[in-house]
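Figure S4 source data
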Amino acid sequence: MQYGKQKINNKYYLFNQFNGKMMTGWILLNGVQYYCYSDGHMAIDEIIDGKKLDINGKYIAVKLFVISGHGAGDPGACANGYREADLTRLLAKQIKQLGGNRVLISEYDRDYYQDNGITKLKLPITTSIIELHLDSASPTARGGHIIKQKGTKATESDIKLEKLITKYLPGRSKKIVYRDNLANPKRAMKQGYDYRLMECGFITNKKDVKEFHEYLSELAKGILEAFGV
C-alpha cells in the first residue's frame, strides 16, 4: 500500500494518506491544488480547465498573459538593425523573469494573430492580457501608446501603463487610443478577456529603440506593477 505523492515509472501519483486509494481529478492537498488524470498520473506544467499547473504540478493563479507580437516566420517591422518580433520577445522574457509563476508568456515561435490564438486560450477569464508590439513610421515619429478595442473602457491597469509610457517612451499626445479594425482586440473582447495592445515606441526611431533597450527592466517592472504582480 502506498500513501501520499509517489513517483512510479517517471510519473507522479497521489494516494490517499489514510486508505492508500489512488486519487484522480482535482485534489486539494495541504492547501495546494493538483490534478491527476483518470489513470492517476499527475499533470505537470500544463493548463487544465483553464488553470496553470507548474513544474511540480501545483496550481498557480496566473494573473497576466503576455503575447509577443509577430513571430513564426513573420519578423514584424524591421529597422535600425532590429526585428519587431525579436524585441517583443526580449521584453516578454524580462517580464516573465521578474513576474515568475504569476505570468505566462506566449510561445516563442508562435504568432497569435496568424493562428487566431486568443480564441483558443484556456486561461481563467480573470487573466489580463497584454500584447507587445513596436510601431513603424517615419524616422521622426516616436512614442508608445496603448490600443484598446472600441467599446471597452480603460482599466486601472491601462492608466498605470499610460503613466509608464509617458515616463519612458514619450512622444505621442494620446497614450490610450480606441480602435475597431484590429483582429486580436476584437477576439479578446469576444472571449471576455481584459486585453490591451501596447506599442513600445517606434522601431523606426533610433531614440525609441535606444530607450527601449536602456529601460527594458523598468518597462518590465512597470508592466508587472500595472497588473498588481
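Figure S5 source data
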Amino acid sequence: MAEGGSGDVDDVGDCPGARYNDWSDDDDDNKLQKVLCLVEMSEKPYILEAALIALGNNAAYAFNRDIIRDLGGLPIVAKILNTRDPIVKEKALIVLNNLSVNAENQRRLKIYMNQVCDDTITSRLNSSVQLAGLRLLTNMTVTNEYQHMLANSISDFFRLFSAGNEETKFQVLKLLLNLAENPAMTRELLRAQLPYRFQICNVSHYHSAPAIIIVLKGLWKGFVISQSPNT
C-alpha cells in the first residue's frame, strides 16, 4: 500500500472532503473518518505518513480511542504493518501503541501481536521500527492477559538486549519487567536461552540500572511465588 501507485494529484481517492485543508466545520468524528479514509485509500507514502501522524496525535487522547475503534480504524491501521516502507510502518506502530492504552482496543489488537513480535525481532537492530514495536508490545503486556503470546520469543528479547544499543536495551527491559511481574511467566523467563556474551549489567543509561534491579526482583518474586506450596 505504501509503495506508491497512480491516483489524483493529491491522492485522496474516494475520501469525501479529504482534498480540502480546511476541516474547521467538521466535528471530531468526521475529521477522524477523513483521516482514516486517507490511511486506507492513499498509495503515496508521504500522504500516508502524514495521515498516520495526524491519527497518532488524535489517538493520544482517551476520548478519541473509542471513536477510532468504532470507525473501524484498528484493522485499517494494522493493515499498514504489511508495508515495506519503514517510515510508514513506524508511524502505524505508533498509532497502534497509542490506541493500545484502551482495554477494549487491546482485546481487538491481540490478533496482531504475533506479527508485531516477529517484525520487531527481525527488524534492523536499533531501528525506529524495532523500537516502536517494542513499545507496542510493552503496552500490550502491562496486564497479564496477553503475555503468554510472547512466551516463545523471550530468548529473542534477551538477544536484543544483549546486542542492542542503550535505547533498545531499555525498551526490552521494560517489556521483560512486565513479564517478570507475572508468576505464570517465570518458568518461561528462566527457560530462555541467553546469548553467550549476555551481560545484564552492561548498560550505562541512567534509567537502566534501576530497571535491571527491578527486573531481577520481579524474577525472584515470581520464582518464590511459583515454588510456594500454596500455589
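The domain at 27-110 is CATH 1.25.10.10 (Leucine-rich Repeat Variant). Residues 208-227 form the longest helix (20 residues).
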